[in-house]
Amino acid sequence: MDKQELETTVSKVLDEMRERPIPLGVSNRHIHLSEDDYARLFPGQPISEKKGLLQPGQFASDQTLTIVGPKGQLKNVRLLGPLRSASQVEISRTDARTLGITAPLRMSGDLAGTPGVRLVSPFAELDLTSGVIVAQRHIHMSPLDALILRVSHGDSVSVAIEGDARRLVFDNVAVRVSPDMCLEMHIDTDEANAAGADNPQVCARLVMP
Ligand SMILES: [Zn+2]
Predict the structure, then answer these.
(1) CA of 10 to the centre of ligand 1 (A)
(2) How far apart are the CA of 186 and the centre of ligand 1, in A?
(3) Is the pTM of this model over 0.85?
């Protein structure tokens, strides 16, 4: 194979890889805790893994909490591991209405000025002073995925969710590139319901500009 042929073949393979559907993960409401907050809510009990998530090292723990707001509460909300440097509660807009709080749309970790909420475990209660967000929809990917898809960390892209007759194109999907991550789009339950994504045939595709 000469150089020209090789380049054509590589570019064909890349085009095909670009067409592959992006795995879609629907994030139900969940909680991340700092080590200190965890120790207060689950004294003397190490966090334990119930089920691994697609992203390497991330897991759903056996531990659940109740989120209590001024208007209502949400029970059995899953704690995700591992523990983090700051506690963060990710809910949908529908959940925020149930709780009676206003939660801003934010990227994970961008918690300045966010509201708090009360967390209740079987052992203790804790009033978080901040950390409640509605997560900005995003796609995790490795640097290789980013190269193939021709996007960079921090880009905002459009993604078509092809599930059923509620097919939707989501704009403003944040691209998150990290060597620790694999290709997966994360949307919340409100977005999944709006797009008919509770369907085994669902797939997500980048809308090329
Ligand atoms: Zn995510």
Answers:
(1) 30
(2) 5
(3) yes
Cα–Cα dist 10/139, whole Å: 25
**Structure tokens belonging to residue 198:** 């509770």
What spacing in Å lies between the alpha carbon of 26 and ligand 1's midpoint? Answer: 9
pLDDT tens per residue across all 209 residues of the chain: 789 999 999 888 888 888 889 999 999 999 999 999 999 999 999 999 999 999 999 999 999 999 999 999 999 999 999 999 999 999 999 999 999 999 999 999 999 999 999 999 999 999 999 999 999 999 999 999 999 999 999 999 999 999 888 999 999 999 999 999 999 999 999 999 999 998 778 989 999 76
User: CA nearest 60: which of 32, 35, 34?
Assistant: 32
Distance 140 CA to ligand 1 centre (A): 6
**What single letter denotes the amino acid at residue 192?**
A
Query: What's the gap in Å between 64 CA and the centre of ligand 1?
Result: 19
